[in-house]
Amino acid sequence: MKLLSALVVSVAAAAAAPAFANADLAKAKNCLACHAVDKKLVGPSYKDVAAKYAGQKDAVDKLAQKVIKGGVGTWGQIPMPANAQVNEAEAKQLVQWILSIK
C-alpha cells in the first residue's frame, strides 16, 4: 500500500513539474518583467493571451515567433521587444504553457 501511495504522489508530482518548469523558464527569460499570469502589466496577462488564441491550430508557431522576434499592434501600441535569449524550442515551450493557462 505504501508503494502505491508513493507511486501516486510521484505521478502527480511529475504531471505538475512541466507547469512549474515553464513558469521557471518564463522567470529565467525575464518574461515576467512585462507579463503576469492573471493581470495586465506592460503586456497582456497570460490568461488573456490563452483566451484570445484558444482553439487556433497555428497559435503555438505564430506566438513562438512573436516571443522571439517581438511585435506591436496586437495588444495596443506598446511594443514587445525581440527576445534573442529565447531559442525556438524554449519559445514553443513557453507558448504551450501560456496557452494551457485557464
Brief description of this entry?
This protein has 102 residues and is mostly helical. Helix content is 58%, strand content 0%.
Describe this protein with a few key phrases:
mainly alpha; 4 helices; Cytochrome Bc1 Complex, Chain D, domain 2; 102 residues
Give a written overview of the molecule.
The protein has 102 residues and is mostly helical. The chain has a single domain (2-100), classed as Cytochrome c-like domain (Cytochrome Bc1 Complex, Chain D, domain 2), CATH 1.10.760. 58% of the residues lie in helices and 0% in strands. The chain has helices spanning 2-28, 46-53, 59-69, 88-100. The longest helix is centred in the first third of the chain and has 27 residues, at 2-28. The protein starts with a helix and ends with a helix.
Number of domains: 1
Coarse morphology: globular
Q: Structural class given helices, strands, pairing?
A: mainly alpha
CATH architecture: Orthogonal Bundle
Task: Determine Rg (CA atoms, Å).
Answer: 16 Å
CATH superfamily descriptor = Cytochrome c-like domain
What is the CATH class? Mainly Alpha
Q: Give start-end ranges of low-pLDDT stretches.
A: 2-17
- What's the number of extended β-strand segments? 0
How far is the first residue's CA from the last residue's CA?
A: 35 Å
Helix content: 55-70%
- Looking at the structure, the CATH topology is Cytochrome Bc1 Complex, Chain D, domain 2
N-to-C SSE string, H for helix and E for strand = HHHH
Mean pLDDT: 85
